[in-house]
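Data card: per-record layout.
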Amino acid sequence: MSKMKKGLAVLLALAMSLTIVGCGGKTEDDKPAEVITLRILENDTAKEKGYLDELLKAFNEAYKDKGIQAVDANMDEYSNLAENGPYGYGPDVLYQANDKLMTYAEDKHLLAINPEDFDCYETTAQEGWEAFRIAVDGKTYTCGIPVNVQEPMLFYRQDKLPQDWETNWDDDKNGVADFFENWNDLYAYSKYLRETDTSANQNSQYGFMSSLNNLYLNANFLFSYDAYVFGRDELGTYDSKDIGFASGDAVNGMTGMIQFAALMNEGCIDDTIISNRYAKIASGEYFCSVSTPDTYTLFVEKLQLQYESEGLSTEEAQAKAVENLKMIELPALMPADGDFSKDSSTMKDSDWVETVVMGGINGYGISSYTKHREACIEFVNFATSYEMIDKRAQMLGIAPTRADVAAKHGGTTDMIFESLEEGNIELMPSIKAVDQIWTPVQTLMGDMAKDAFRPMVEKKYQTSAQIEAALEKACKDIYDAIYTLAD
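The structure for this 487-residue chain is written out next.
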């Protein structure tokens, strides 16, 4: 029995001794008089795909004789622990990205934990644990337990590749289509699809599609050009006064983003493409779109329905969907000058920059308002066990931080961790100030994407100076939100 389980057994025994009833000193059926109920907040995908039900069922079966049960918190995945926790409405355990969990940790809404208390400690990548560490008064605390790595991925249908891709779209003959290796060829293929769209309204055939107002999914248009969220001080700690969205050659990246928007439809201005990407990839209207690994099963599900509508049986459709739905990293090279329309065959190595994306580590945190700390630790230990992380990977397509589960599933997970180690994934800063970046930058990115659809006389971002001024204003708005307006 683990130390935690022994400790919990002692606590439960004490609780039983304080609730002795009748002459015999036992409760009916010799069971604990009061069952501890833990409220668990999971993300919407885990709920929709049935993983949360599987987790709760397995935990409750394992702990049915130990006086603990876990239930769905029945709250929105983005419910605010800071607002709900103090009044007893928040969850006991919550699963979210590192930037959100550590925002709570900074204001002491999460409990500090000892990583070594968890069975997953030895098998979990250190990059995962580092995402949940916070320095307070010269001491470092860990306030989250890693589960999976997130980064934007490219999703497409293998059976929608052009028939001539090996002859016309694989110049280096390495067996990988050029439009999966560099952004200029992805632009070229997207442009080709738009120009050869023969539908009545020319709106049924698109290449790369993304809601460009989403910073997380499109940070490559900034980070690849040496922009950043916050700088770091001499100790390596994030400095939220150093806001870097206008730094480096960010102007080039935003110029290129506007270029790409012109090959999309106006759904790229807002969340429309995020909402319809699963169905549109399945129908073939979008050649490829960007999302995160944990949405893989949602793409497969829609593709299966598409195949069923074409006459396949459920079993045949499911097998074909798994075979054809592909998830890969974004193309590794972007044009240094931000001009995606250049012919890649004319470009030298020095004309490219490596693609850098925004990433995160999702994991569990324990609310500081819980009345059942030890029971919460038991739940999280169970939820991050090999068996449950393996099931999560099977059901949701995540890239697990547990090395043993990652080794079993291989492929994408290994690729993601290699990108993380090489600096091609910039993890979201785990500080409270990151909350203030989203609205100013995403509003600006959506407005810049809209420029592709404005009449010439109404365009707002036609020059580098205009783009740079807008980026600098966004940085100032973030600074004011963190400091000036908070005073």
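Known properties of this structure: Confidence is low (pLDDT under 50) at residues 1-31. The chain has 20 helices and 17 strands.

See the next section for split statistics.
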